[in-house]
Design goal:
By secondary structure, the chain is an all-alpha fold. The termini are far apart. It is globular, with a radius of gyration of 26 Å. The relative contact order is 0.10.
């Protein structure tokens, strides 16, 4: 205490912040551990279902579904490229680990969207909520990812499910921010026109704001996916399986080949998810996704069945006349 002076006020003492955080965490573990196990249950259910499905599905079926999805969303060039990447993943011997990692990332994405999109929408409606969320999101995006591991292990244990939870905490910020930004960027003229025609807040949100903000929201989804994949290796330190575990084992054994194969699998999976989310973000006309390929048969069938009720609702001759295509010269 003798060194305490005006020129060095920090020598007078330190705030017991570290001890306070440790005591608070121990108190939560001692008194509310059952609550955190309840919170863990939905993550466990979704993850176990996805993991069982992805690991039990034949690789050829998985490749066919992803290729068909890429073809319908974008083009046959993207479908061919993704097929080559998927075969590359299989032939280097990391298919099972890739499916486990994909299950973890997709589970984290589902919960990130369930949490992030409503919070982003609500923050556009409430100035106070936005003011509270901004510093929290700043902290979530700047705190080193390793810091999240200790409290997660103490509250939820180790394994794939705590890995999903820590990934959600780490990766949910972009989707909240970009949902808020996308809705805020909707032109005020659109909002005023909708309200002038008597639209409610819910109709304004679903019919105008979300469709116009969709490209920005999809950019947030893309960033959440990429951050989830970047968390895979770090989360492997708490016994999360998949490609991250391969990289961690390679580092621990100084096995460059094992670490390289795991890293290549992560890169390949990142390319696949990035290209698919970018294709989803591209604006398209209604029904354009069914324009070609085998899915076109299903699309035309659905449109046929949807068209029948509309034709039976038309009873007025004037409405029938207006619904017909205008003939040349009439």
């Amino acid at each position: 205490m003798s060194d305490c002076s005006l020129w060095d006020p920090f020598a007078c003492g330190k705030l017991p912040l570290a001890q306070g955080v440790s005591n608070a965490l121990r108190w939560l573990v001692d008194n509310y551990r059952p609550f955190f196990q309840i919170v863990k249950a939905p993550f466990d259910t979704v993850l176990q279902s996805l993991t069982a499905f992805m690991n039990s599905a034949p690789p050829t079926l998985v490749i066919a579904v992803i290729v068909l999805l890429a073809w319908q969303l974008s083009s046959w060039r993207l479908a061919t490229a993704l097929a080559a990447i998927l075969f590359f993943i299989g032939f280097i011997g990391v298919w099972s680990e890739t499916m486990t990692t994909l299950s973890i990332v997709l589970t984290a994405l589902v919960f990130s969207l369930v949490i992030g999109i409503p919070l982003g929408i609500l923050s556009t409606r409430s100035i106070w909520l936005n003011a509270i969320l901004r510093p929290i999101l700043d902290g979530m995006q700047t705190i080193p990812a390793f810091v999240y591991l200790v409290p997660i292990v103490m509250l939820f244990g180790i394994g794939n499910v705590p890995g999903v939870i820590v990934t959600v905490i780490f990766a949910v910020a972009p989707v909240i921010r970009l949902t808020y930004l996308g809705i805020r960027q909707v032109p005020e003229e659109v909002n005023e026109a909708m309200r002038a025609f008597g639209a409610t807040d819910r109709q304004l949100l679903w019919k105008a704001q979300l469709p116009l903000a969709l490209p920005t929201i999809m950019a947030g989804v893309n960033q959440t996916l990429m951050m989830s994949l970047s968390m895979v290796v770090i989360a492997s330190m708490i016994a999360v399986g998949g490609l991250g575990q391969m990289v961690l084992r390679g580092i621990g054994r100084l096995d460059v080949g094992l670490a390289s194969i795991g890293g290549l699998g992560i890169v390949a999976l990142a390319i696949i998810l990035d290209r698919l989310t970018q294709a989803l973000a591209q604006p398209r006309k209604p029904g354009e996704i069914w324009a070609h390929g085998p899915v076109a048969v299903v699309g035309h069938t659905l449109r046929l069945f949807r068209a029948v009720p509309r034709q039976t609702e038309v009873t007025s001759p004037i409405v029938r006349r207006l619904d017909r295509p205008t003939e040349k010269g009439s």
